Amino acid sequence: MIGNAGLVIQQPTILQPEERSYNGGGIGSSNRMMDFLEEPIPGVGTYDDFNTIDWVREKSRDRDRHREITNKSKESTWALIHSVSDAFSGWLLMLLIGLLSGSLAGLIDISAHWMTDLKEGICTEGLWFNHEHCCWDSKYVTFEDKDKCPKWSSWSQLLISTDEGAFAYIVNYFMYVLWALLFAFLAVSLVKVFAPYACGSGIPEIKTILSGFIIRGYLGKWTLIIKTITLVLAVSSGLSLGKEGPLVHVACCCGNILCHCFNKYRKNEAKRREVLSAAAAAGVSVAFGAPIGGVLFSLEEVSYYFPLKTLWRSFFAALVAAFTLRSINPFGNSRLVLFYVEFHTPWHLFELVPFILLGIFGGLWGALFIRTNIAWCRKRKTTQLGKYPVIEVLVVTAITAILAFPNEYTRMSTSELISELFNDCGLLDSSKLCDYENRFNTSKGDELPDRPAGAGVYSAMWQLALTLIMKIVITIFTFGMKIPSGLFIPSMAVGAIAGRLLGVGMEQLAYYHHDWGIFNSWCSQGADCITPGLYAMVGAAACLGGVTRMTVSLVVIMFELTGGLEYIVPLMAAAMTSKWVADALGREGIYDAHIRLNGYPFLEAKEEFAHKTLAMDVMKPRRNDPLLTVLTQDSMTVEDVETIISETTYSGFPVVVSRESQRLVGFVLRRDLIISIENARKKQDGVVSTSIIYFTEHSPPMPPYTPHTLKLRNILDLSPFTVTDLTPMEIVVDIFRKLGLRQCLVTHNGRLLGIITKKDVLKHIAQMANQDPDSILFN
Topology with regard to the membrane (predicted)? Predict the structure, then answer.
């Protein structure tokens, strides 16, 4: 009993082994009670598609399995070996997930890099080289003209033998758009035909699956194959999307498929979700080259149940995945990501002001993006637009490609753009962002002092401003289309552009007004005071935090990217500011918003339930509703039960002593009932429609020559969770969150009154928040 709330939770009962019982007329009698569950029946204890698992039952089954193995290990050497292998299987599974995730991530990185460059030309030395690798050892490449090399031919050079003039520009423009449309068409067609679940980032669905919901096929082999192929195509098409979110989905597919190799994980849905939590960590590890950030991302953002053992295994899986990707070396620079940077100039306390301004911008952008993207996705679901996914993808791709080609910052891949924006200018940089006056008049080696911006910097600022507007608008329409699409990279790009613009502005302000009070104490003339690349990094963290509402994991991912611990404070300031601002404008992150849009039964653990309602206000049936459908423990025939099953769609049924007393005995799942009755009918001739079903331990004596009775006590949950009708709903919601319940029975003085399901709880929360309660329906 908790306080005087009236909450009663029945503890699981330890059942003694069932005894065979013979009732009635002695030898030759045909009324022996049949117990078909002394041997496990295939399918009993499993779940239908789009149902929620019973966490309590799954954990209890795993404890029983572990206890049995431990007890047997003392009996023989073979049993001891089996016990050791069972304990080691989890670590072996993590090793395999890390190896497979890292290998697929390397393959995706290499392929996407090559296909992105294919839109602009090909390598005449070898078609399989991308632009950078093609010109790696060319003697004609200089730092000023690093894109010019005789081994690389643009499409205009191949088709009309010249790279100069308006016609050559038009040919390159046309080929760029054509390749983008081809890649996008292949991506959306493969998803539509072979694996509809391969679209999107996959993180909202993975959060829902980890909370206990079952979506068959979402983590299957076809989804893995098609997502891997189409992710490369989608990224290469130049659309405003990233591969980092979908890599989490890819890693979870690897984890789910490999689970089938181990009985412990194949047969237990709760144990499998522990593996998927670790796989999500491996996915982020290879996406950003951030193993620790991956573990924290899994803990903070996607996992529902995360015991300490899963933390260790997640760390191991993330470590193996990062090591595998590092061994493949997809970018040829011994780094795990394309935009790894190192800054050398320390930041000053005053710079926290622009960093916080970037945090405010990130929060505003995050809130704006979530509202507009959800509105567009809702329009797609509720109008004719959703029926034409191929046309939608091709139209958005055409608009993106046509707008992107004239601007070098939109034409390059988003990862390369972020790399350029994060870069700290050195003597050998030929980028327009590093086109400062007097850039070679320095005696400080490769570190350059603050200096006046040249024409290239001003030109780059205009182009970046246009790029910022385009990225903000086009990402809204891109995320949620029927192709693999991540949000990490586009969000980081928006923030990095805003940060670089502000950083260059601050740099020029410090150069021309170094005698101002805010600068003169720490920034003398000719010193290297401001690092624009650091502002880009802080802006990227702020915008990503505004969209996803990540905090701790975001900061760790960002400092693992840069390799610098001294920039944690600016990153923390920006991440927290963006979260505060975004939360003030809307409580949900993008993934939670998409979970609600799709009607997934996800019970958010972070939000408090503050309303003073009682269990009796939420339970079914309500007043004037038909009575609750129940089974009796010893008076219903097979035909009666089959009629109830055919006339209802409920996932389970309470079992009572009798309809008059309504005293609760237990709870039985619909799927287990169907499978058990079908199995009994197939395997025993004596079970007919008039056979009585018993949920009791012993049956009363029966007259001779009556039909076989069917004993189904073993599928009965004798300790369902119950609360009284006066239990406050805030306690009921807490029980559902912390124990992962599917349903809870409501009693009054031991008599069954009603039932509360997870969906009832979600509908009630939506109703209390003035939302449409029918939106909590998976579609």
Answer: Multi-pass membrane protein
Structure tokens given for 106? 């390397």
State how far the Cα of 729 lies from the Cα of 742, in Å rounded to an integer: 16
Residue with tokens 């992107």: 404
3-state secondary structure (DSSP) of residue 637: strand
Nearest-angstrom CA–CA distance, 408 and 430: 14
Neighbours of 700 (CB within 10 A): 11
233 neighbors 115 (Cβ within 8 angstroms) = yes
Distance (Å) of CA 758 to CA 630, 706, 717, 776: 19, 42, 18, 10
Phi-psi region of 730 (alpha: psi -120 to 50; beta: other; left: phi over 0): alpha
Q: Which residues contact 184 (CB under 8 A, 6 or more apart)?
A: 233, 234, 237, 239, 393, 394, 397, 483
Out of 276-285, 607-616, 637-646, 725-734, pick the least confident: 607-616
User: pLDDT tens digit string along 719-764?
Assistant: 899 999 999 999 999 999 888 888 899 998 888 999 999 888 988 8
Is the overall model pTM greater than 0.70, yes or no?
A: yes
Residue 445 in this model has a pLDDT that exceeds 70: no
Tokens representing 342 are: 């190192």
- 47-to-55, 351, 680 alpha-carbon distances in Å: 12, 55, 20
Nearest to residue 556, comparing CAs of 341, 285, 282? 285
CATH number of the domain at 615-769, out of 3.30.230.10, 3.40.50.300, 3.40.1550.10, 3.10.580.20? 3.10.580.20
Cα–Cα distances in angstroms (integers) from residue 325 to residues 99, 337, 515, 556, 653, in the given order: 9, 10, 49, 19, 50
Candidates 1.50.10.10, 1.10.3080.10, 2.30.33.40, 1.10.3720.10; CATH matching 98-328:
1.10.3080.10
Alpha-helical segments (H) within 549-696: 552-562, 568-585, 590-598, 615-618, 638-647, 670-683
- Cα separation of 496 and 417, whole Å? 9
Calculated CA dihedral for residues 34, 37, 41, 43, nearest 10 degrees: 110
Task: Name the amino acid, one letter, at 17.
Answer: P
CATH architecture assigned to 352-440+457-589: Orthogonal Bundle (1.10)
In whole angstroms, what separates CA 656 from the centre of its chain?
A: 41
For residues 505 and 354, the answer to whether their CB atoms sit within 8 Å is no
Integer Cα distance of 243 and 229 in angstroms: 12
SS3 740: coil
Q: Where in the chain is the domain with CATH 3.10.580.20?
A: 615-769
In the chain, ranges of CATH 1.10.3080.10 domains = 98-328, 352-440+457-589
State whether residue 684 is helix, strand or coil.
Answer: coil
Report the DSSP beta bridge partners of residue 34: 710
Q: What CA–CA distance (Å, rounded) separates 551 from 297?
A: 9
Please tell me the distance from the alpha carbon of residue 36 to that of residue 576, in angstroms, as a whole number.
59
How many C-beta atoms lie closer than 10 Å to residue 391's C-beta?
11
* Contact call for residues 722 and 754 (beta carbons, < 8 A): no
The tens digit of pLDDT for each residue in 650-694 reads 888 999 998 888 899 999 998 889 988 888 888 777 778 888 888
Helix 389-404 to helix 455-478 angle (10° resolution) is 180
